[in-house]
Design brief:
With about 300 residues, the chain is α/β, with parallel strands linked by helices. The protein folds into two domains: about 140 residues, Medium-chain alcohol dehydrogenases, catalytic domain (Quinone Oxidoreductase, Chain A, domain 1), CATH 3.90.180.10; about 120 residues, Rossmann fold, CATH 3.40.50. Strands 3, 4, 5, 6, 7, 14 and 15 form a seven-stranded mixed β-sheet that branches. Bound molecules: NADP nicotinamide-adenine-dinucleotide phosphate. NADP nicotinamide-adenine-dinucleotide phosphate binds next to helix 1, helix 2, helix 3 and strand 9.
Length: about 300
């Protein structure tokens, strides 16, 4: 037997339950991974609550979890690139809060030496989201980038990857996270009323591009600061972005981009602080992410 988190209805964190399930087996081209780390995303919270029920209705009982790191423990027919015992990380589709996941072998990224497994599991979604958004926005060395929600998982990586690309970065966060945001390489600015003026003060040269991971007010502020509205990107609120001439910057999943960020993390070029919860404390982990505040990434340990 194996164990997985299931929900039987939309609702608060208390609808999350751990149940026994049959051990999954890999088919052709697939591997089975013994999960060690499962990331918790704001997306999982929205899914659990039913916020996405109109667009993506769940069939109950439903499973959750789009990111994992662990050890390959079974290999399906035709898989030659991975073997039992290999440590991997990658995306999965709403199944990763579980002791075992089965994924296409081509979606699994080999964990680089020097990267601990907890950080590896934490990186998966945020790394792909941040790197994809920066790519979509064409952030480069000449830019001054404004990152909204810079202390969160996506913001943490977006700040550092933009700095790696040579950009100057301003990051919004609550005052408690300002030293942290500064340590990532950005100038911290408090969000809330007066944001536009504070950013102008922090970046007298002007802001050329903005990445929103916070929603409406962040986008409206960006519209006052960025001249080329097509360089206002959001991963939260496409409708508001489009209303000001900006756009959504969701990129398709990319094992190649994930591998590139994992390599930077293995070298210590990028960091991602992790808040860990035992698998059995999945309800507490959801509460932590649902608070909407905090730094870095929340993961479950199995
Ligand atoms: N994770 C992903 O891969 C992914 C993919 C697509 C879309 N998204 C969306 O992007 C958003 C952020 O995701 P995440 O994983 O980075 O979240 P997270 O790790 O939970 O971080 C949320 C951050 O938002 C900050 N924040 C709260 N209110 C804010 C405000 N009014 N203005 C600016 N910052 C504010 C908090 O900073 P303080 O603690 O300093 O208040 C906190 O650090 C979510 O809506 C999520 O659904 C995420």
């Amino acid at each position: 037997m194996s164990r997985a988190v299931k929900i039987n209805e939309y609702g608060g964190p208390e609808v999350l339950t751990i149940v026994d399930v049959a051990e999954p087996a890999p088919g052709p081209g697939e591997v089975r991974v013994r999960v060690k780390v499962a990331g918790v995303q704001p997306f999982d919270i929205k899914t659990r609550r039913g916020d996405l029920a109109e667009r993506m209705p769940l069939t109950f009982p439903a499973t959750l979890g789009n990111e994992y790191a662990g050890v390959v423990d079974q290999v399906g027919p035709g898989v030659t690139d991975l073997a039992v015992g290999d440590e991997v990380l990658g995306s999965a589709s709403a199944v990763a809060y579980a002791e075992h996941v089965v994924v296409p072998a081509t979606d699994a990224v080999r964990k680089p030496d020097g990267l601990d497994i907890v950080t590896a599991g934490a990186l998966v979604a945020a790394a792909q989201t941040a790197s994809g958004a920066l790519l979509e926005l064409g952030v480069n060395a000449g830019d001054t980038l404004l990152v909204h929600a810079a202390a969160g998982s996506v913001g943490t990586l977006a700040v550092q990857l933009a700095r790696e690309a040579g950009a100057t970065v301003i990051g919004t966060a609550s005052p408690a996270n300002h030293e942290y945001v500064r340590s990532l390489g950005a100038t911290p600015v408090a969000y809330g009323p007066g944001l536009v003026e504070r950013v102008r003060e922090a970046a007298p040269q002007g802001v050329t591009v903005a990445l929103d991971a916070a929603g409406r007010d962040a986008i409206l502020a960006s519209a006052e600061l960025v001249a080329d509205k097509s360089r206002i990107g959001t991963i939260v609120d496409p409708a508001t972005a489009e209303s000001v001439g900006g756009r959504a910057v969701f990129s398709p999943r990319s094992p190649a981009r994930l591998a590139a960020v994992a390599a930077l993390a293995a070298k210590g070029t990028v960091i991602l602080p992790v808040r860990t919860y035992p698998f059995e404390d999945v309800i507490e982990a959801h509460r932590a992410v649902e608070s909407g505040h905090g730094r870095g990434k929340v993961v479950l340990l199995l």
